[in-house]
Every structure is written in C-alpha cells, then in structure tokens.
Design goal:
Blueprint lengths: L1 H25 L15 H5 L11 H4 L2 E7 L6 E15 L4 E5 L5 E14 L2 E2 L10 E9 L2 E11 L10
Parallel strand pairs: 4-7
Antiparallel strand pairs: 1-2, 2-3, 2-6, 3-4, 4-5, 6-7
C-alpha cells in the first residue's frame, strides 16, 4: 500500500512534465519576457515613417520653410530655406529665379556658379530653367539675400496638364 501511495504522485508529476515539454516544443514563439517598457504592436511598426535621409519626409511635403543647420562640432550654423512650387520668372541678366508656392508665397533667389541645378536626374544649367516649370529650391539665407544651393526641377512646363477653366 505504501508503494501505491508513492506511485500515484510520481506518475502524476511525470505526466505533467511530459505535457509541459510537449506544449513548449509545439509553440515556436519565444516565451514573453518582462520588460519595463511596452513593446509596440505590429500596426505601429508598419506606420513608422520612412527616415532615409529625408527628415522623416518633412521636406518632401513642405511648401516653404526655414531651418537652421550646423556642423557636427557646433562651431558654425547656417540658416537655410526651402520652397516648392512653380518658377514664375528667370532673370538671366541678374541671375535670379522667382518661385511661387501653391499657397501664393513668392520669393526670389540668387543663383551662383556653385548652385546645383538638376532635372529628371540630369545636371542642367541656369539657362535651361524656364518659367512654368515646377521646382524645389534649397537656399542659404544671409540677411535678406537668399542664395540657391540646390534647384531641382520636377517636370518641364510643356509636361504640365492644361489649366481647367
């Protein structure tokens, strides 16, 4: 009788151990660990912005703005501006470019020999720019002067859809 009293608890413990091992090996996901911070769910990971060198897409969607940039060591800062819109005037004599954003904002930029001008992945010259082209400008602000550092044309004026009447 002493043997049966001992056999029942040992057999029960053995069955439970086999069951736990079977369940653990059947579940391929790791056991959750305790963490002091909550982990984001799958939908939050899918909604994370693409930050591949574009400030989370901020400049991609801005019409116009101003920001300050500095060297890594903090020794120097520059005030930069950006604008998207349509080229309204190209003055080859004064070497300036005037842009108008969709919200009506107008600004004139000085273009220098150091200004990088690109359209459809190709380098262009200042003489290639035409009124009516859609473009994006990044410029350095010094006092009341805006000197374009980069001009990127989106498409030619001839490619624009006809205005609706």
């Amino acid at each position: 009788m002493k043997l049966s009293r001992l056999a029942v608890p040992v057999a029960t413990a053995g069955i439970l151990a086999v069951g736990v091992v079977a369940v653990a090996s059947a579940d391929p996901s790791p056991a959750p660990s305790k963490s002091s911070s909550p982990s984001p769910d799958a939908s939050a990971k899918q909604k994370a912005p693409d930050k591949k060198g574009r400030a989370g897409g901020l400049l991609k969607h801005s019409l116009h703005g101003e920001f300050t940039v500095g060297k890594r060591d903090g020794s120097e800062t520059r005030v930069m501006v950006n604008q998207r819109g349509e080229i309204t005037k190209v003055d080859t004599t004064a070497k300036t470019l005037t842009m108008k954003s969709p919200d009506g904002f107008l600004r004139t930029y000085t273009v220098t020999n150091d200004t990088r001008i690109r359209s459809k992945g190709q380098d262009e010259s200042f003489a290639d720019l035409k009124a009516g082209e859609r473009a994006m400008v990044v410029a350095e602000k010094t006092g009341s002067t805006y000197t374009a550092t980069v001009i990127r044309c989106v498409r030619d004026a001839a490619d624009r859809p006809a205005a609706k009447s």
